[in-house]
Design a protein that fits this description.
This protein is an alpha/beta fold and 374 residues long. It has helices at residues 16-21, 32-49, 62-71, 87-98, 116-125, 147-157, 207-214, 225-230, 240-256, 258-278, 301-310, 337-353, 362-373, and strands spanning 5-6, 54-58, 79-84, 102-107, 129-135, 137-138, 143-144, 162-166, 185-189, 201-205, 292-296, 313-314, 316-317, 326-330. α12 runs antiparallel to α13.
């Protein structure tokens, strides 16, 4: 029997009390009891998102909310700027084109991050761009884009442009100030830092975005943002048990305190990243996120991952062109110091067994030293 340690950037581990909260007898979704939980959950979400904007909860993966942010905002032949620096940045362009709009793609190499000046230039060259779509944390590479600087630049120079951010591996792990950073639509998914199984997408929607949506008549039915905002308890059958779990998740996050939450994630990221460096390994991301660490592998990363699984440690491979080249270790959500020591030790053992010359034990030592110095 091997005990499993889920160290992937989604799904992530679910706390026991949240699991038990979702194991209670099912309630009907049109009762006053459930509507009270649903509406309270949306109010709690505002605190975690650091926003006063409306909250929408869809029974879908995060991609459902990504689609909604395109189908509700863009008409056919509208122009949108999509920032592409990884697999999920590429997804923005794919969704925009799927609805007949034009995706002007600002491309960076995998591992790189967006520059506000580049976005400024793209908007000057294309003054009819209606929206900018970007990731906060690009999950496929472990990069964190400077969405604060980008949002403030847009507010100053392009106040009519809608700013849409995929925060699926950021919300609940990184100090994202939705309102202060001029983010009109912010998106996350349940299976990341919110410590739930997959199945929910949560988004905040600004008044500016709502005014734009009011003038768009597109082909959508289920992913109707304005209809969801106006509904009491959800327009369609919501994922009742997941909503109950989300309610408790937000309460646990707020009980920890946002400052403490962000400090914990910063510490776990630092320990993991410095441990990798201590082993002589190179971080892949040029601007690493606090939610996951991507590490270049000196051998086929698939072999490393499979050996780590033999010790119960489950991490993620690279995606697309990065498969076989990097591993991605998560530290967002229900993680703490011993989890990172376990992940680093599993990596060291796998590399050693594959014949890679590393200073064996130095990664674990470095992580523990950082935790001691905390």
């Amino acid at each position: 029997m091997i005990k499993k340690y889920l160290m992937t950037p989604g799904p992530t581990p679910v706390p026991e009390d949240i699991t038990l909260s979702m194991a209670q007898p099912i309630m009907h979704h049109r009762t006053k009891e459930f509507k009270s939980i649903f509406n309270e959950t949306k109010e709690l979400a505002k605190q975690v998102f650091q926003t006063k904007n409306d909250i929408v909860i869809f029974a879908s993966s995060g991609t459902g909310a990504m689609e909604a942010s395109v189908s509700n905002l863009l008409k056919e032949n509208d122009k949108a700027l999509t920032v592409s620096a990884g697999k999920f940045g590429e997804r923005w362009g794919q969704i925009v084109r799927a609805f007949g709009a034009e995706a002007i793609e600002l491309k960076y190499s995998y591992g790189d991050y967006a520059k506000p000046d580049d976005i400024d230039k793209a908007l000057k060259d294309n003054p009819d761009i209606k929206a900018v779509y970007i990731q906060a944390s690009e999950t496929s590479t472990g990069v964190f884009h400077p969405i604060d600087d980008i949002g403030l630049m847009l507010k100053e120079k392009y106040p009519d442009v809608i700013f849409v951010v995929d925060g699926i591996t950021a919300i609940g792990a990184v100090d994202v100030k939705t309102d202060d950073w001029n983010i009109d639509i912010m998106i996350t998914g349940s299976q990341k830092a919110l410590m739930l199984p997959p199945g929910l997408a949560v988004m905040s929607v600004s008044d500016k975005a709502k005014k734009t949506i009011e003038n768009v008549k597109n082909r959508y039915y289920y992913f109707d943002i304005l209809k969801e905002i106006a509904s009491d308890g959800g327009s369609y059958t919501p994922a009742v048990t997941l909503i109950e779990g989300l309610n408790l998740s937000f309460k646990k996050i707020l009980d920890e305190g946002l400052d403490n939450l962000f400090k914990r994630h910063t510490l776990l990221a630092k320990a993991t990243q410095e441990a990798a460096k201590a082993l002589g390994l190179k971080l892949f991301a040029k601007r690493p996120a606090n939610s996951l660490t991507s590490i270049e592998m000196p051998v086929d990363s698939t072999k490393v991952i499979n050996l780590m699984k033999d010790y119960g440690v489950h991490v993620s491979n690279g995606q697309g062109e990065l498969k076989g080249k990097i591993i991605r270790i998560a530290h967002l959500g229900y993680f703490d110091k011993p989890d990172m020591v376990m992940a680093v030790s599993g990596l060291e053992i796998a590399l050693k067994k594959l014949g890679v010359d590393i200073p064996f034990g130095e990664g674990v030592k470095k992580a523990m030293e950082i935790f001691v110095e905390e």
